Amino acid sequence: MAAEAAAANVSDALATVDNIAIQVEQALYKLYIAVSGNGFKTITDKISVIWTPVRNVLSSVLKQVEGLIKPLMDPQVVESIKNVLEAGRDLVNSTLDLLPDSARNLALTGQRFLNIIVDFVGAGVEHVVAIVDLLLNVGKALINEVSQLAATTIAALRKTGVQIPATNP
């Protein structure tokens, strides 16, 4: 009974995370469209005295951030992280019988924690990649750099019902 309730709670939590990720992706896409369009460029051209120094600082920060998070745009890297977590969980599972009772309780707690993390990462690989790509492209658009969403991001957005023109910005 308790296990079923816990599974239902995890399932509900995963659905909530999925829904939040979809909402974040959709909002970031709207922001990306807004800042990558001609209207934004026209506004920033009119306030170039103020905007140019801001853009230069943003550009410097973006380059540093991009270097740090670029690996998270690769679904294989995120999948590898998930595989390591799954391997850790499997290791815990396979050694439970070998542990004394006092250590087994701690290992069971660790096992439950790893199960939750693996489930969250597994449910969110596509979302993580799409959100990171959207954030980087919003940043690039803000500093007037060429930006283009990855094909995986476009596919993820379309799955959520976002209408993306054939020639996306």
* Radius of gyration, in angstroms, nearest whole number: 21 Å
Order of helices and strands: HHHHHH
The total count of helices amounts to 6
Q: What are the low-pLDDT stretches, counting only 5+ consecutive residues below 50?
A: none
Number of strands: 0
Return the average pLDDT rounded to an integer.
82
Span of the ends, CA to CA = 51 Å
Structural class by helix and strand composition: mainly alpha
The assembly state of the depicted protein chains is single chain
Strand proportion: under 5%
- Could you give a short account of the major beta sheet? none
Helix fraction bin: over 70%
Question: Given the C-alpha coordinates, what overall shape results?
Answer: elongated
Structure in words:
The chain has helices at 2-36, 38-46, 48-69, 75-95, 101-142, 151-159. The N and C termini lie far apart (51 Å). It is elongated and about 70 Å long. The chain is mainly alpha-helical and 169 residues long. 82% of the residues lie in helices and 0% in strands. It has six helices and no strands. Helix 1 runs parallel beside helix 5 (101-142), helix 3 (48-69) packs antiparallel against helix 5 (101-142) and helix 4 packs antiparallel against helix 5.
